[in-house]
Amino acid sequence: MADWDVKKLRILRTLHELGTVTAAAEALHLTPSAVSQQLTGLARQLGVTLLEAHGRRVRLTDAAHLVLRHAEAVFAQLERADAELLGYLQGEAGEVRVGAFSTSIPALVVPAVRELRGSHPGLAVSVREAEAAEAYELLAEGSVDLALSLAAHAPTPRDPKFTRVALLADPLDVALPAGHPLADEPGLRLADLAGEQWIFGSSGPWSQITTTACEHAGFVPERAHAAADWDAILAMVGAGMGVALVPRMAMSGARGRSEPVRGESGAAAVAVRVLRADQPRRHVVAAVRRGAEGAPGLARVLAALRRVAERAAVPPDEAAL
User: Fold this and answer.
1) Where are the beta strands (DSSP E) in the chain?
2) For labelling alongside 278, which of 191, 193, 209, 307 has CA 20 to 30 A away?
3) Which class is 91-168+282-320 in CATH?
């Protein structure tokens, strides 16, 4: 029987994910020569060739891909073993580290933590803000136990390293200056705003989400101003500088409808309209390393996030802010 060295298998997987020996070495805090030596030893133990020269780099052989396919099942089983052992050793205690993108923290994570403090006071939840795509990197490297991200920026559901849980389809509403001619238009559609100046980020997830939503409505948005902070975006909308798509979680969680954006006269400056006919949505997902979902603390955090997401899914009325 071949000698399946888990440590060396992890090095092989890291090389496959990052593409070069140098990148794998940096990620694993090893030297490139140490990575090469470990993989040479693994090839000798398994009795197959794992790497072949490809220009100035190396690439994985078919045998290496076969090994990795089985290794993923091994890693998942080890995660399940860790989860069961954690449940045995810690019971109701322990810590769950959550990586989450900014608007999900006040809208989903904080209410879930508040609920768990009452029902499971021995369970500690630590939160780390991260961009939607970065959350998966933190999860893969073991820096967090649970990642909250957007489905559009997540690995596919077939990725063997993660288990994904759909949480929420977050509607995108449109923010217009309160005095805009379309602010009170019945049956407002996203396509009606094709000729407007738009406010959204110059890069990153929100830029992609805005442009994709508008393209589905039949136009490419003209970006007049670039911003990522919701307070900045709403302030510019209120000043009549453009219109913007805003996720409902950002409005109800990060800012709250109890804190309206108002002009100098005190009148409402921003009208938030629900696009009922062609409403775009962004899909929020949670993910854990495959096999770890059985850990009791992690399962409780996931359950609390699901309950909060179910409550957040109730659509609000249109409002002027």
Assistant:
1) 51-54, 57-60, 94-100, 123-129, 146-150, 162-177, 197-199, 222-225, 244-247, 270-273, 281-289, 319-320
2) 307
3) alpha beta
- Give the count of beta carbons closer than 10 Å to the beta carbon of residue 88: 9
Which tens digit of pLDDT belongs to each residue from 134-167?
888 899 889 999 999 988 777 777 788 899 999 9
pLDDT in tens, 28-63: 999 999 999 999 999 999 999 999 988 888 999 999
Instruction: Give the predicted TM-score (pTM) of the model.
Output: 0.70
Structure tokens at 241: 């500088």
- Residue 217's identity, in one-letter code, is A
The answer regarding whether domain 171-280 maps to CATH 3.40.50.150 reads no
Hey, which residues does 271 pair with through a beta bridge?
A: 176, 320
Question: Secondary structure of the chain: what % helix, strand, coil (to 5)?
Answer: 45, 20, 30
Domains 91-168+282-320 and 171-280 share a fold: yes
In whole angstroms, give the CA distance from residue 187 to residue 276.
Answer: 7
CA–CA separation, 69 vs 48, rounded Å? 15
CATH of 6-77, one of 3.90.1150.10, 3.40.50.720, 1.10.10.10, 1.20.5.320: 1.10.10.10
Give the number of residues written for the chain.
321
